[in-house]
Design brief:
The complex is a heterodimer. Chain A is of the alpha+beta class. Chain A has eleven helices and 13 strands. Chain B is globular, with a radius of gyration of 20 Å. The chains are: A alpha+beta, B mainly alpha.
Amino acid sequence: MLLQRKPELTYADVTPKDVYFNRRKFLKAMGITGVAALAGRNLLNLASPSRDVYAATKFTGLSKSPFSTTEKETSYQDATHYNNFYEFGVEKDQPAKNSQNFRTSPWTVSVEGEVTTKRKFTMDEILKLAPLEERIYRHRCVEGWSIVVPWIGFSFSILAKLVEPTPKAKFVAFESFWDLGQMPKARPELAGIEFPYVEGLRLDEAMHPLTLLSVGMYGESLPNQDGAPVRMVIPWKYGFKSIKSIIKIKFVSKEPPTTWNLSNSREYGFYSNVNPSVDHPRWSQATERRLGDIFRHKTLMFNGYQDQVASLYTGMDLKKYY
Amino acid sequence: MHSFLSNKWIKVPIFLLCLVPFGLLVWRALTGNLGPNPVETLQHTTGDWILRFLIFTLCITPLRKLLKLPELIRFRRMLGLFAFFYACLHFLTYLGPDQNFSLAAMSKDVAKRPFVTVGFTAFVLLIPLALTSTAGWIRRLGGRRWQMLHRLIYISAVCGVIHYYWLVKSAVLRPLAYGAIVGVLLLWRLGDWLIRRGRTVAVAPKTQRASANSQ
């Protein structure tokens, strides 16, 4: 294993939870409202310029990852204002607006199914599972745009090993949080997909070191619109595989249903590996536009992670298993 | 209302109004406010305005008849030409940033992708309409033939809606809304045509000579 972690990084390096979560509530509790809030906002903006005041606190002492790309990072503004998060609206600019009051604390992730130790993790516990790394990954949307994001988290396999999947476990099913009260737009008739959002991976894909359980980006905890408080990041697959705001992880013996596949199985397969030679039925996947660019560039096989992940699919017909 | 619509100068503010979406895009481009994916913003905004102007254009005839405002015809050509104007911009954002200004790459893409094929068709169909939009061309073609030719706008609008519908992943509400409006406008024409035909058939025996003279 190539990963070099710095063992000296502990949970003490992470900002305390009451600061981490819902700083907005924290401000309210301090009696900062109305005009005063504007002043507070400005003060906080001075402390962390160009960051939205609602984005939570910084992580410090992150270890670097050999998996990181050296490509130019997408700007924080773009990565947080161009989102597909249908629970908060189908237009790219809606999640940033509609998710600001999303309550991400308290939060628990239930781990179930074919595991020796079923258990619920609080966000506190998840943050303590392993030293946090920064991993700068390419992220390619099935729609033909891409970004480069410095995610924060650790390999999903760390959590998986902890709960000890039984020999029956062949796949992992994930489920997103869904609450119409907080997500009034998360209705099938508005979004065209079913809720709650579900995703899945083959067990070996889930255990791959590149597969990241992410709790932050750009040095901070995840903004709500990017899948707070905890999400998956699978950099060699189309973005919709990287499920957001996870509340349930279930180890299962059969291939689990996945939201976009349920919506349109001809267009969105279970695997959905980035593959420039297998087109979406309606558009080409040969090229992509990096946010911030005018012209398109060539899309790489497995989004450029071929060396690491191609062996997972040896002997498979990737046109058939798209 | 009649004198207002017939006023010589009324076309000027309407012309300027039709330019507002373009002006806003230019303004946003110059101030760097086109969002994280500027090319997409340009494509989607111009695409929206093509459909809107096609719909405005298709509204003229029903509104003239329903509201008994024949003067509305004065604005039809301008609205149609604005649909074509936004279609040209839309096409350029595709030919340029998407296809690197390569006509060869574009032809391949048009041939291969149904949603591009149908969008390209919608655009190409508007070209003869724009070219023959002058009074001179109406005269040269003769009213009847000119009118036949300009019914291509129906196909163009339908193709435009399909193009949009095939583009979206799952959020079909907006393309469906455009489709519903275009559908209503085309159905109204069908209904109007059926009624007129019925009337002509019914009155034909008695007024054959009279109507022949009047035409």
